[in-house]
Design goal:
alpha+beta; 4 strands; single chain; 4-stranded antiparallel beta sheet; Beta-Lactamase; about 230 residues; about 10% strand
């Protein structure tokens, strides 16, 4: 309808509905905009039709709000899944170049929407050359923050530990720590993500995507035991 069209009359609407009896079936949300007629039986008489229609309107509003929330949540989840997949590909490419530690620190913050990321190991036992520069954690540290029983720690409030986050520790107000157990002679380690936003992580959040990234990192590190490339940085 353009601006010069005459306004619709009641007869126009009635004629349209008569020609389109399935209109409300195709567009049930239209009932949300209807005003029900007052009861003809007096104010003291309850009209069950009015009650039923108002109940239906409330259910339609709830359904519409729920659908909008579901769509928004799905979009967020798809975006997070896409960023996680990109993070995994980046990790694999970084390890192939012999720069996994640098890749985690430089690329994962942008891909996973955090402020700082780090790959660290306990400095116990003999370490492959590529792991040695990343071994800043004392023996037993990983068991304290991410024990085997709870290998993912999501902490809403956290003081950044320089042994984990290095120079970026001062930015950390909330963190996510994923336990790494590469095996093949490696000590345990951590894949750590930190945010400057208090409460960015909490225990009620799903951790399956972080666990997936951690398992990929763990797999990469496991291969280091079998000989590092001579030109690979730590």
């Amino acid at each position: 309808m353009n601006d010069n069209s005459p306004p619709l009359t009641d007869d126009d609407v009635l004629a349209f509905l008569a020609e389109n009896p399935a209109f409300l079936d195709r567009h049930p949300e239209a009932i949300l905009h209807l005003v029900m007629p007052a009861s003809r039986h007096g104010a003291d008489v309850v009209d069950i039709r009015d009650f039923a229609i108002r109940r239906l309107q409330e259910e339609l509003r709830d359904m519409r709000d729920g659908t909008d929330a579901l769509i928004q949540t799905t979009r967020i989840n798809m975006s997070l899944l896409k960023r996680t997949h990109q993070a995994v590909l980046t990790v694999l490419a970084g390890d192939e170049k012999g720069a996994l530690g640098e890749t985690v620190a430089d690329d994962l913050p942008l891909l996973l929407d955090v402020d700082v990321a780090a790959l660290r190991f306990e400095n116990a036992g003999r370490l492959p050359a590529r792991a040695a520069p990343l071994a800043t954690l004392p023996a037993g540290y990983v068991d304290q923050v991410a024990p085997r029983a709870r290998p993912i720690a999501l902490r809403p409030q956290a003081s950044g530990d320089a042994r984990v986050f290095g120079p970026g520790a001062g930015l950390v107000a909330s963190d996510a720590l994923a336990r790494l157990e590469p095996g093949n002679g490696h000590p345990p380690g951590l894949l750590a993500l930190g945010s400057r936003r208090d409460g960015a992580f909490d225990e009620d959040q799903a951790s399956d995507l972080l666990s997936f990234v951690a398992r990929v990192v763990e797999h990469c590190v496991r291969q280091w035991t079998f000989g590092d490339r001579p030109d690979a940085p730590g």
